[in-house]
Amino acid sequence: MPPPHASCTTTTRRAPRVGETGVVTDLHAPAVRHFASDNYAGVHPEVLAAVAAANVGHVPAYGDDPWTERLQDVVRAQLGEQAVAYPVVNGTGANVVALQAMLPRWGAVVCTESAHVHTDENGAPERVGGLKLLTVPTPDGRLTPELVARQAWGFGDVHRAQPGVVSLTQSTELGTVYTPEAVRELCDQAHALGMRVHVDGARLSNAAASLGLPLRALTTDCGVDVLSLGGTKNGLLLAEAVVVLDPSAVDGVEYLRKAGMQLASKMRFVSAQLVALYEQDLWRRSAHHANAMAARLRAGIDAIGTLQVTQPTEANAVFVRLPADVAQALRRRWRFYDWDVADGTVRLMCAFDTTEQDVDDLLAALRSAVGGTGPARTTPV
Questions:
Q1: Rounded to an integer, what distance in angstroms lies between the CA atom of residue 298 and that of residue 317?
Q2: Model's pTM, two decimal places?
């Protein structure tokens, strides 16, 4: 049986110019916005303007610049007075550096089987970070204390990698969101066991916007120790950050960032993007819009009445089962990911620049391909 997240098939992520399978052949059609990933979207104009504004004269390299200094003020305002940001250039780098800094060489990370650190980083936490991932299955992408307990054992056993970190993905790879209460419960459990908590916040903005909360309400205020703060999926070019919320939770993060090839020499351009996103409310505006487009898409799919949505729509992703011929018809114009090849589940992702017309055009094509109506079969929103 194919894995639940079988997204790398010849008709999805690795689909360059495979017209013979009915997939879109034009790799750059500016008028078309796809539903494969929020990584497909371009850079927000306000972010491009911030990069251009930083492109003046000579300033010191490797983070000794005014933009990186300003970023520290921004993360303290958003995430608390102890917060310290270490800008990096991609999300995998942020996760690997963060987890390395939180664990000894014999440490292990408890996460879900669907977590991005497990499914989509080509083993980087293990290959590069030298860490062991201890995974648990979960139907909706979320950890619970009961699930963590399945792997949080064997402390002091020389034969077992030592559980040291619980890593949450927020929002999850299945588009669901942890509430503050759920995060706090996991933090309390981990800390009682002598473990730390890491949040992969590639889509933290979408989770916070969905719940109408500030960023710290889902992190610092719940007891999270270290955050991989996302940017690329919410309109940045190349910018993420390891944000240390509790200084006692890490060791040598600045050295690991360099050793892990994540220390940008012209860091002002990375920091300028993060400042543009998080200094005011651009993060919330962009994430709220992406979420709203996903909600519009979900409502339209529900209205068709014959398709099964497999996950609650809580952020900017919709998971729906499509008959093979329907998926093939849609792929003549749009790209999207197969999620479970066995049952036909696909992921439809909205971004900061997805428009209502984009959603309505996809829904019109979907209605035409499906034909007819009937009783809706959905999971609760």
A1: 9
A2: 0.90
